[in-house]
Amino acid sequence: MKKAVVGRDEVGARRKMIIYGGGTFAALMRYLFESDSNYVVVAYCLDRKFIASSEIDGLPVVAFEDVENIYSPKDFDMFIAIGYSGMRNRVLMYERAKQKDFMLANYVSSDSVVSDSVVLGENNAILQGVQIEPFVSIGDNNVIWSSVNICHDSKVGNHSFIAAKSTIGGFSAVGNNCFIGFGSTIIHNVSLADETLVGACSLITSDTNKYSKNIGIPAKEIGFHADEGIKIK
User: Fold this and answer.
1) Cα–Cα dist 100/169, whole Å
2) Cα–Cα distances in Å, from 92 out to 34, 103, 204, 213?
3) Which of 68, 75, 164, 221 is most exposed by smallest CB count within 10 Å?
4) 36 HSE (CA, 13 A, CB side)
5) Which residues are paired to 191 by β-bridges?
């Protein structure tokens, strides 16, 4: 079982972090990092045009445009905390943050079970009760919510959101910027194309098309979102 990733210092040192984001997901990630890792959050950062207060939950808020001048990437790491309401925003914020040269931290819950053979990118959130079996590959900037099961030899790309109690079967592949709703099942040896939306409690039994919406048991393709991307209300 892997513990929460601690950053570049030795285990036991409290590595300092800035969270890029200021909503409820950012608050949750602050709590998780501080209670279940060797990180301490020292500030939030937001795009300047979205800053409405100099503090959030007692921590300073700095403009993203200036963050590296205030908190050096040599001494501070970052986590990009953005949810699923506009999935393409997850990609945009990640790409902007990468230009700042911060190390982007992973959070892996100590209550998850992650095989030592798993290949893990950066800026991933793996919450409590998740099980990730051997020989799985996970890219960057994914949120894997509580009690998800990712079976052996599967692949998850970048920027996706997998909601609680979902299952991804062995040898399956989740593309980039996908959304998998609560309690859904992707059977073994199935591929989700980039920007696939899977509705809650759906069963995917065959490969999906890019930008497609898939809902039901078994799931049926009910539409596309190529123009706006996935948006969840």
Assistant:
1) 36
2) 26, 17, 28, 22
3) 75
4) 19
5) 173
**Structure token digits, residue 72:** 């050096």
Other CB atoms within 10 A of residue 110 CB: 12
Please enumerate in sequence order all residues whose Cβ is within 8 A of that of 34, keeping only pairs 6 or more positions apart, or say none: 40, 41
Q: What confidence tens digit (pLDDT) does each residue in 174-188 have?
A: 999 999 999 999 999
Report long-range pairs for 62-69 (Cβ below 8 Å, ≥24 apart).
62/18, 64/20, 64/96, 67/18, 67/20, 67/100, 68/100, 68/101, 68/102
Q: What is the model's pTM?
A: 0.93
For tokens 């939950």, name the residue.
57
**Measured between alpha carbons, how far is 109 from 35 in angstroms, rounded to an integer?**
10
Q: Which amino acid is at 102?
A: F
Three-class SS of residue 98? helix
Classified as helix, coil or strand, 94 is: helix
d(CA 168, CA 150): 5
Mean pLDDT of 117-129: 98
Six token digits for residue 124: 């991933």
- How many residues belong to the chain? 233
Distance (Å, whole) CA 62 – CA 20? 10
